[in-house]
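In the current project phase, work has continued on tokenised descriptions of protein folds. One protein thus recorded appears below exactly as we store it.

——
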Amino acid sequence: MNTVGSKVLEELRQLLQIALYLYLCLVALLLYASSVAGAHHMEYVHLGYAAVKALVLAKLVLLGHWLHLGERHRNRRLIYSVLYQALALWALLVVLSLIEQFVEGFFHGHSIAAGLAELRGNTIGKVLAQSLILFLVLFPYVALRQLGAVLGPGKLRQLFLASPG
């Protein structure tokens, strides 16, 4: 296979892996929120929205990797490197998600003022909780990714999937 084709397939594989991880996290949060609210079932539309949101967030995470976001501290202790990159990706996702909401509102005929009013309608506690959850989802992803880079190609997969012995 040519280099471009293999590179496209590799990036698609990465996108789908990240999206699957994010989707599972989002579904777990939806199930939790639904159980706290006392709902007896979850609407399928929420699962579809979670799938789309996971794909969008995964694409933004890949954008962060392409920009080498947070990789400046790779030569420091692993915990600092992981924290820095997770924070950098978190900031990127928060900012680009806000921009996405404004663009989506614009295409639905809402003004920027309406978008700002909706943002102000969110309580600071809700915004902080969502931001913290996003960071907590990103942290293990970044940690495993960096650990895999430190161990070398295929070593992390071998550690997790190889038979003991």
Summary: The chain has two domains: 1-66, 73-165. Residues 73-165 form one domain. The chain has six helices and no strands. The helical segments are 3-36, 44-66, 78-107, 112-121, 124-151, 155-161.
